[in-house]
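EI: anyone free to look at a 296-residue chain?
SC: sure, send it
EI:
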Amino acid sequence: MRNLIQLIRPHQWIKNLIVLLPVFFGGALLQWYAVYAGLITTLAFSLTASSIYCLNDIIDINDDRQHPVKRNRPLASGAVSIVQGYILMGLMFILSMNSTFLLPSHQVETASVILFYWLLNIAYCLRLKRYAIIDVCIVAFGFVLRILAGGYATNIQLSKWIVLMTFLLMLFLSFAKRRDDVVRMNETGHAPRQNTIRYNLTFINQAITITASVTLVCYIMYTMSPETIQNFHTDYLYLTSVFVLLGLLRYIQISVVDKKSGDPTKVMIHDRFMQLTVLAFGLTFLFIIYVLKNIQ
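SC: here you go
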């Protein structure tokens, strides 16, 4: 049982909390309907992602056996059979689709987005992940689909800025993750992924810098846009840009100096600086839109 749980990677479910972004940026945290629908959609996406993890490990089983860390995964180590992997993959997806029936409304739209995400990632696992740049774009687009599903489920219209920032931020994190692969390839002479040979440190470093810069500029433009000011009735949100800058700089430090950007989820779970930065950002944002605007 422990190996089966390890195969679906529940520790990675934390990344699916991005589904709640429409609730957070939509100022709907005090609306039980929106929070409930967002949490159900988060669960549905987590189960779907687990289904894809099973397929990914089945396809990569031979490569994982050559990897110093991934060879300990349940399938690569032989603790779980390939047949069990396929069964678990199907079960996770069925549970995901069934969970959408718990939504109060927009069940079909939300389930359709999740289904599209599942099919896209099957194509990613089977073929598309072999192509450099395309692979990170698909990963980033997967997070856009998460917030689209969150928007449908909660009946909150997404700002174009939120969609753009989500894609850019996840593209930044994906390039940082690929940097870890390039470093390992340079040290061992073995490419962890088939497309790693199409990356090098010069390219990756420039890509990280570009995406981080554009993400920050995009966020600043979001906070100062007339649409945002009118929506939240405050023009002080630009102050939260400080925490976005700190978070990006810290992650670049983890990637370039510490060389530990291989798993963004583990970074968020273990890095105290990142945790405090995200917490400070969230609390400041909430204070501005729920408290400060009412005392101006």
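EI: The CA atoms of residues 20 and 38 lie 6 Å apart.
SC: 👍
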